Amino acid sequence: MRELTRRQREQLEREDAIISKAGELFCKHGFENVSMNDLAREAEFTKRTIYRYFTSKEDLYFAVSFRGFKRLLDMIKDKIKKGNTGFEKIRLSYYEYYEFYCKFPRLVQLINMRGLVKSETKDEDVPYRKKFMDIDKRLFEELIGMFIEGKADGSIRSDLEISELALSSIFIVSGFFQMLSLSGNTYTQHFDLDKDTFIKHTIEILLDSLRNK
């Protein structure tokens, strides 16, 4: 691999600093409530410098989301090495998503609002949207692969098609953590629930619906 020049390293460091600050502000105040002027002031860069690296605030949103999903994918891929069956890998993945949520609840909320980030901008004008869609696809492929493996090794139920079983399950678990990120502790406190116990109980109910019995 070719060694980067000092200028290239500085550019990467600057880009990383802008993404970090954008993620911090988007998570704290909400994507809609942060302007490029706010970002420039907080990141201590000029708007001109920021636009040199990112085409728009939308591009920055997808840069933040891309980095978040890449971190999640890396966490899952590392964790599933401990699994011997498809079911065990699914279980480890869901609990790793729980770990990701515990560390970055606001980021989970931010990433899952991508359907609300509407734009008529073409993909080529938002480079990080394409990168995010690619990492999103890789994450789904990784999870789908575990369901295929589980069906082949007999560890998950075989009476449903993979598309029915996997996509529904993934949608439910991601939706569950999105609702948690939106409600904070309101729901669990209202019903006097221990949050950790409630989350683990919910994950186990979902996993039980997948297990081959």
Description:
By secondary structure, this protein is mainly alpha-helical. The protein folds into two domains: 1-53, Orthogonal Bundle (Arc Repressor Mutant, subunit A); 57-208, Tetracycline Repressor, domain 2. The protein is built from ten helices and no strands. Helix 1 crosses helix 4, helix 1 (6-29) crosses helix 6 and helix 5 packs antiparallel against helix 7 (127-153). The radius of gyration is 19 Å and the shape is globular. The termini are far apart. The model has no long low-confidence stretch (mean pLDDT 92).
Write the topology of this structure.
Blueprint: H1 6-29, H2 36-43, H3 47-53, H4 57-79, H5 86-103, H6 105-111, H7 127-153, H8 162-183, H9 186-190, H10 195-208
Helix pairs in contact: 1-4, 1-6, 4-5, 4-6, 4-7, 5-6, 5-7, 5-8, 5-10, 6-8, 7-8
* Number of distinct helices: 10
Approximate helicity band: over 70%
Quaternary structure type: single chain
Main sheet properties = none
CATH C-level category of the largest domain: Mainly Alpha
**What structural category arises from helix and sheet content?**
mainly alpha
Runs with pLDDT <50, length 5+? none
Assign the CATH topology of the largest domain. Answer: Tetracycline Repressor, domain 2
Second CATH tier, the architecture of the largest domain: Orthogonal Bundle
CA gyration radius, whole angstroms: 19 Å
β-strand amount: under 5%
What is the element string, with H for helices and E for strands? HHHHHHHHHH
Task: Compute the number of structural domains.
Answer: 2
Question: What's the count of strands?
Answer: 0
What's the CATH H-level homologous superfamily of the largest domain?
A: Tetracycline Repressor, domain 2
Mean pLDDT: 92
Distance between the termini: 49 Å
What is the general shape? globular
